[in-house]
Here is the input.
Amino acid sequence: MGVDVAERPWDGCGKCLVGVRRLSRMKAATTSPERQRQDVLTAAASIGGHIVGWADDGEVSGATDPVTRPRLGPWLRDEMGSYDGLVAAAVGRLGRNVVDCLNTGCKMRDEGKLLLTHGHDGPWNLDDPADENRFTIEAWGAQMELRSIQRRNRDATVKARTAGRPRHQPSYGFRYVRKVMNGRVDSVELHPHAAFVIRNVAQRILADPVNVTPSSEAARLNRIGELAPADHTDVM
Here is the structure.
């Protein structure tokens, strides 16, 4: 069957599915969201299902518990309306933690909902030992991949810091100090203006936490033309 799957509201057909997509790093050049979409549609089409909504979590680590993810979480907490199951491009897109994946899978099983991933023939049946073992193995593989990525990132960060070449921009309120232009970072110090802005925000929120919130402060800073952290760093 092709991937021409309708996207329409829940109609009680028993195959109303939520498409799950997750990506740790969103970049303009990435094609992963589209590839995941095609895999999700292919899996849904294989059982004659249709999509009632998308749980697209960009810039969300696989280590994040699915229940707390911004887009998938509300579906799992039954805050988004009726649906008959989840469909993802791979088990690793549900999460990169064995416990999280099994919790999500068992939730679908216990509630009588479907769980599909691309490459698996039909819905997962976690009451079947063979399916349960395969699901667990794929979740374990995703977890091991996450551990490997985390280890590489930690090693690269330590190496870069030791060489005085941090991999990331300084946190808002700070700036790197280089004794030689474009040379290694010799130290980190407070940025006079940015530090003043963020301290003022903190003081305003602490003084009146009921009426002053991070959101209201962000709106206030936008109104007075204060640069956002990323823009401030670019200008600097």
Observations:
- The CA atoms of residues 149 and 155 lie 10 Å apart.
